[in-house]
């Protein structure tokens, strides 16, 4: 979802959003048989990438819950995997062969059948797509990695369509969380034809910041989809968006709204997300690709100042999970120790102690990121380090990392499934998600050991050790765990549930009640 990330952070202070982490749930059943209509949504401005193989933003993941479907999908409340096109599956005794049986009657929007070959072809195309961010999640399949990096052929990838309804995967190692991975839109059934969809909706149009979807009559569970369509308008005009919501012209606003001006406060939903906002070093640039230099920098950071504006501060990288061991994060600093570490690093590298060292930080034109830069600049100046900022375009920030000559970047990552590997995969040496170009054999070895460990407790212990290696290497600077802001009246709109991945599958949404209006302090508000 996954995931599913969006780099433009939503930052809130407790003074602005005093109702944080509260929400009101409405009834779960549409007992009133209300006439269904188009659902109107306002989203943040962002040019949608509608290719499920290359898209990576959370806003796109939300759209794909309507346009595409795979073997599994997300439960709308728990986000646990639920069978979608998959009728059933079985796992071999050694846990390396997974056999999926597909449901009868699954079709694309053009009426063509969705078969086992559909999934094989979709996934082979994914592996062969340049810059497909989630392709490496299939590295557990025999032959997938070699084909992905150009050292093997498609016929060697052990994804087999035994017959129209039977799909078989042969894995290199047991992968207990495979159904969680396969919920992701990158592994959906994708047609080779344009404008053909496997999900509950089809794309009617997308232009000038407005996207429209209509119900897919060929969808396998079309009778269970109640909305006739969905309209999404992209807008960062907070005041206007707030007004449109207050007068009832918008049913759901995601983020780009002045929460304090929303008249119906029960419609405000603020929740923690299964994610982490952090800074990271690019692994190719000297001297910042050296551990000793990075550790000197991290020792000098006043973390309380860096994280002061965030409700949920993060000192570690992986979002805390039940039964996941604690690791030692970054929350303490010592300016004198930092100077000592920098002096030792310079000596080891043969760099004079009085030489000023430039460090380039790629930022966006956003005040909160400029605040980070100012904090770091002041902290690192006494170490002989000059922080230089360059501004990148928000729409292309992610894709620009590989070609941008900078040393430090930032991410806000939302995990695609509830497992530590949803985060640690970002730094595995051969991962397509590893935009940092980070290389650490000990880290990779621990992930490999965890992959073949069957006991959950032992597996989590190895993954925690891997995270500790990453933190001790000074590769990441954790800042905060993001929070999401949505304004939607769940007494009017059914099927919407707050959850940690911030995904709300469109197929479950419906109109629960008609709107009524009344005056509140001289203003018209619709409920």
Structure report:
- The chain has 527 residues and is an alpha+beta fold.
- The protein is 23% helix and 21% strand.
- It has 13 helices and 22 strands.
- The chain has helices at 58-67, 116-127, 144-148, 178-182, 238-246, 291-299, 303-306, 335-349, 367-380, 397-400, 421-424, 441-451, 456-472; strands spanning 39-43, 72-74, 81-83, 86-91, 97-102, 159-163, 166-170, 201-207, 210-215, 229-234, 252-254, 268-272, 275-281, 357-363, 385-391, 408-414, 476-480, 483-488, 493-494, 510-511, 517-520, 523-526.
- Strands 8-9-10-1-11-18-12 form a seven-stranded mixed β-sheet, sandwiched between helices. Strands 4-5-7-6 form a four-stranded antiparallel β-sheet, with helices on one face.
- Helix 6 runs antiparallel to helix 8 (335-349) and helix 12 (441-451) runs antiparallel to helix 13 (456-472).
- The longest helix has 17 residues, at 456-472.
- It is globular, with a radius of gyration of 24 Å.
- The model is unreliable at 1-31 (pLDDT under 50).
């Amino acid at each position: 979802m996954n995931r599913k990330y969006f780099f433009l952070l939503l930052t809130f202070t407790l003074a602005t959003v005093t109702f944080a982490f509260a929400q009101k749930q409405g009834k779960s059943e549409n007992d009133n048989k209300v006439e269904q209509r188009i659902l109107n949504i306002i989203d943040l401005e962002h040019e949608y990438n509608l290719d499920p193989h290359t898209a990576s933003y959370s806003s796109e993941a939300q759209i794909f819950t309507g346009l595409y479907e795979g073997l599994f999908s997300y439960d709308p409340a728990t986000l646990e995997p639920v069978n979608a096109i998959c009728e059933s599956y079985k796992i071999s005794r050694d846990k390396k062969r997974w056999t999926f049986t597909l449901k009868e009657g699954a079709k694309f929007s053009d009426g063509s059948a969705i078969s086992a070959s559909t999934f094989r072809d979709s996934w082979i195309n994914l592996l062969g797509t340049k810059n497909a961010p989630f392709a490496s999640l299939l590295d557990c399949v025999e032959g997938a990695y070699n084909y992905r990096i150009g050292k093997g052929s498609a016929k060697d990838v052990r994804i087999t369509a035994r017959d129209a309804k039977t799909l078989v995967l042969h894995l290199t190692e047991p992968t207990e969380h495979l159904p969680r991975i396969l919920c992701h839109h990158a592994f959906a059934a994708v047609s080779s034809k344009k404008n053909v969809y496997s999900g509950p909706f089809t794309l009617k149009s997308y232009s000038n910041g407005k996207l429209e979807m209509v119900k897919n009559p060929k969808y396998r569970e079309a009778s269970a989809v109640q909305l006739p369509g969905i309209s999404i308008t992209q807008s960062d005009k907070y005041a206007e968006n707030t007004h449109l919501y207050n007068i009832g012209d918008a049913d759901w606003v995601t983020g780009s709204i002045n929460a304090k001006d929303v008249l119906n406060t029960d419609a405000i939903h603020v929740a923690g997300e299964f994610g982490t906002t952090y800074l990271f070093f690019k692994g190719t640039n000297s001297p910042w690709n050296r551990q000793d230099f990075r550790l000197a920098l991290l020792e000098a950071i006043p973390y309380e100042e860096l994280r002061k504006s965030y409700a949920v501060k993060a000192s570690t990288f992986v979002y805390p999970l039940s039964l996941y061991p604690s690791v030692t994060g970054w929350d303490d600093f010592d300016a004198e120790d930092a100077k000592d570490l920098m002096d030792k690093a310079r000596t080891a590298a043969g760099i004079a102690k009085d030489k000023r060292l430039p460090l380039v930080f790629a930022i966006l034109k956003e005040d909160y990121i400029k605040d980070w830069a100012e904090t770091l600049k002041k902290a690192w100046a006494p170490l002989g380090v000059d922080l230089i900022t360059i501004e990148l375009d928000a729409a292309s920030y992610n894709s620009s990392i590989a070609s941008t000559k900078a040393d430090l970047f930032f991410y806000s990552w939302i995990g695609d499934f509830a497992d530590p590997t949803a985060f640690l995969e970002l730094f595995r040496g051969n991962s397509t998600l590893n935009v940092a170009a980070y290389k650490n054999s000990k880290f990779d070895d621990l992930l490999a050991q965890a992959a073949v460990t069957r006991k959950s407790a032992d597996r989590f212990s190895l993954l925690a050790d891997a995270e500790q290696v990453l933190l001790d290497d000074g590769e990441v600077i954790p800042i905060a765990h993001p929070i999401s802001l949505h304004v939607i009246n769940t007494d009017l709109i059914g099927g919407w549930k707050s959850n940690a991945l911030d995904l709300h599958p469109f197929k479950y949404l419906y109109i629960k009640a008609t709107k009524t209006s009344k005056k509140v302090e001289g203003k018209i508000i619709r409920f």
